Amino acid sequence: MDGVEKIxxxxxxxxxxxxxxxxxxxxxxxDGATTEEKDNWINxxxxxxxxxxxxxxxxxxxxxxxxxxxxxxxxxLVKEFWPESLKRVx
Length: 90
Description:
Blueprint: H1 11-29, H2 35-56, H3 60-68, H4 70-81, H5 86-89
Helix pairs in contact: 1-2, 1-3, 1-4, 3-4
């Protein structure tokens, strides 16, 4: 496993990450997205999302919002990191 960075999360961080990633994906793809579309989104965006999450996970407010209001936080992240998707989301 040389050259592979080990990433570990607490249970709280894993829950927050999962909630937020699902909210982001559904916001960008819509509730009617197929499994294939969801898989494609994850494969295309997982590294970008991981970097964003890693940079912000030390902020307790970010973790709280990821768990308690992931849809609102997802909207903010889309504006900041996926602005090209805003036309599709609107």
